[in-house]
Write a structure and sequence with these properties.
The chain is α+β, with helices and mostly antiparallel strands. It has 12 helices and 14 strands. A hairpin with a 2-residue loop joins strand 11 (395-396) and strand 12. The model is unreliable at 212-222 (pLDDT under 50).
Length: 465
């Protein structure tokens, strides 16, 4: 029987696919209203995290990796674990504005996490203009996905500035931790898990062939190859972050007026922003770009940690100039992608990587894909992910969170990731990018609310006519 101490197949994927240039951690940047001095708040913050962290035990665990990637790693105890070892204080360069913070956040975020200790860290950032401070956190994707990360964030933070420690956890965890695993047991488990690979590979191959031959003789939108744009080169080590926000209530008005979803509107406004950004640089292709949209496979009420997600490839409609036409086309294509995913679970790429490949083989495949990024077909251009969070203000060690900027990971040929969180009536967009592939990212971030205003105006005119 498989030990629950071992990482699940899907959690282990995010370790196997990691390379020196492509770290697999996610995180966020929170702006805080700090009413006390930095020294006092730093002490309060460390005590706050030390008090709250026991709701998620895996934050005190570390990895025991299997030699040569022959099996999935194990969770083992970290001796003498101390929260304070994972929290650092840093200061943003003067004058402490948005661009200085963006530069610092990117420099801190691009550094891979140390696998010899628990896979997370936090940075208290001081010196922001207006007396504000910020909190940057990094968590390896093998610990959780965006949905479980949002649940944990709400567990760690408060709904009032003077709240006491929560008595019950809203997150659950099926994984367990133990002492380092003996070499003989590692070999036994590796052989047992490897024996399942041929059956899993056959299942995925059968599904892929069935879909391929079923699509022959007709145009399949799901099999499109994405056109290469300027941010689809080989991604390097550098990371930077830009951000913007729009009103969630205004987004919902458009959703209701056109009978679409919030995700559809998010894709439409980011599509319009990219269309403008690329056109201004004479780099807009005639074919539509394609977005990779993570879709949660969680059942309602499931607050467990770990990863439960699959990716949908959705045409981004960047070839359409009219904002309403673009939104309705995205809605149609998104529904088609969802229906196809629901009808054919057998060919999930995440499933293939998790169930049908040894971790070491997956790592070699990812490095090969990165090296050949200019020569292999491009399935998608960028990731667009939407994670709901609290509709009410949250507090961290007594300081109010005024804005949240989500930060995610980049793929081998995807120099842009757009992640969105809904918090306190706003949609906050975090644009993580390789600055060597996506120059002037702030111009793209600023186009998101501008293109949303264009969409609003078009919808208003349609309703009035």
């Amino acid at each position: 029987m498989q030990s629950t101490q071992q990482l699940s197949p899907q959690d282990a994927v995010f370790l196997s696919m990691e390379t020196p240039d492509l770290p697999s951690h996610i995180g966020g940047l929170a702006f805080l209203e700090c009413t006390e001095g930095p020294e006092a708040f730093a002490l309060r913050f460390v005590d706050f995290i030390r008090e709250r962290l026991p709701v998620c035990e895996r934050f005190s665990w570390k990895l025991q990796e299997v030699p040569f990637g022959l099996d999935r790693p194990y969770w083992v105890e970290q001796k003498d674990f101390d929260v304070a070892d994972h929290i650092q204080r840093v200061a943003v360069p003067a004058p402490g504005g948005t661009r200085e913070l963006s530069e610092l956040a990117g420099l801190l975020f691009e550094r891979p996490l140390d696998r010899d200790r628990p896979l997370w860290e936090m940075f208290l950032i001081e010196g922001l203009s207006g007396g504000r401070c910020a909190l940057l956190w990094k968590v390896h994707h093998c610990l959780m996905d965006g949905a479980s990360g949002a649940s944990l964030t709400e567990q760690l933070f408060d709904i009032s500035p003077d709240a006491t420690r929560p008595s019950e956890s809203v997150v659950t965890d099926s994984a367990t931790v133990g002492k380092p695993v003996a070499p003989l047991r590692i070999v036994e488990n590796a052989l047992r898990n490897a024996s399942d690979l041929p059956r899993n590979q056959a299942r995925y191959l059968e599904g892929s062939l069935r879909r391929f031959f079923g699509a022959r003789g007709e145009e399949s939108k799901e099999s499109r190859v994405a056109p290469r744009v300027l941010f689809n080169g080989r991604v390097g080590k550098r990371r930077r972050v830009a951000w913007s926000s729009v009103s969630l209530d205004e987004v919902k008005k458009i959703k209701n007026a056109l009978s679409v979803t919030v995700n559809d509107v998010i894709l439409a406004m980011t599509s319009g922003a990219l269309r403008t950004y690329l056109a201004d640089r004479d780099a807009l292709p005639e074919e539509t770009l394609i977005a990779s949209v993570p879709s949660s496979t969680r059942k309602p009420g499931d607050n467990s940690l770990g990863n439960q997600v699959r990716d949908l490839a959705i045409p981004w409609a960047t070839n359409l100039a009219d904002p309403i036409e673009r939104l309705l086309q995205i809605h149609e294509d998104a529904n088609r992608a969802k229906a196809g995913a629901a009808a054919d679970e057998s060919i999930s790429m995440m499933g293939v990587m998790a169930d049908a490949l040894l971790p070491g083989a997956l790592g070699l495949m990812m490095r090969g894909a990165a090296a050949a990024s200019d020569r292999i077909p491009l399935p998608v251009n960028a990731v667009v992910s939407n994670v709901p969070m609290a509709p009410i203000p949250l507090y961290c060690a007594g300081a109010r969170l005024t804005q949240l900027v989500p930060i995610s990971l980049l793929g081998a040929t995807q120099g842009l990731n757009i992640t969105v969180v809904s918090y306190c009536g706003e949609l906050h967009f975090g644009l993580v990018h390789d600055p060597d592939l996506l120059p002037e990212a702030w111009a793209l971030a600023e186009q998101i609310p501008k293109n949303f205003q264009l969409l609003q105006s078009a919808v208003d005119r349609q309703l009035e006519s």
